[in-house]
Amino acid sequence: TGTIAATSSTSFVAVFSVNNARKKYSATFTPPLDTFSSDLVHLSYSSLGQMIGSPAFTGEVGISDVHFTLSSPGVMMSGELRKHTSSKFTISGTGIWNDRSVVALV
């Protein structure tokens, strides 16, 4: 599980606990949106090797949830929005898995 938080109208950061380590996906997207966040995000994947590089993604934000599918086959993020939106928005962009941010969680 993890979190997603928009850091601007065109970017977000997702942070997950994976095998007692932290994995971070930082992304930019279009079109611009109001900020959004989710405190309980599920990450689906087949292997840790899928969480490397700079995969593109497509997804939806709203009305009550967020869902992103990465270009790495089988990698998806989904969760309930902290604050619901008035409409559902489709966004796309690219991100990067930051392996330098991998640290053991206490």
Number of strands: 8
Q: Total helix count?
A: 0
Overall pLDDT metric: 91
Helix amount, in percent? under 10%
| Structure class | mainly beta
As a percent range, the share of strand residues is: over 45%
Q: Could you give the order of the helices and strands?
A: EEEEEEEE
Strand order of the largest sheet: 1-2-3-8-5-6-7-4
Q: How would you sum up the global shape?
A: globular
Please report the distance between the alpha carbons of the first and last residues.
15 Å
Largest sheet: 8 strands, antiparallel, barrel
Query: Whole-number radius of gyration?
Result: 13 Å
Oligomer: single chain
| Uncertain segments | 101-106
Describe the 3D structure:
The chain has 106 residues and is mainly beta. It is built from no helices and eight strands. Strands 1-2-3-8-5-6-7-4 form an eight-stranded antiparallel barrel. A hairpin with a 5-residue loop joins strand 6 and strand 7. The radius of gyration is 13 Å and the shape is globular. It starts with a strand and ends in a 9-residue tail after the last strand. Residues 101-106 have low confidence and may be disordered.
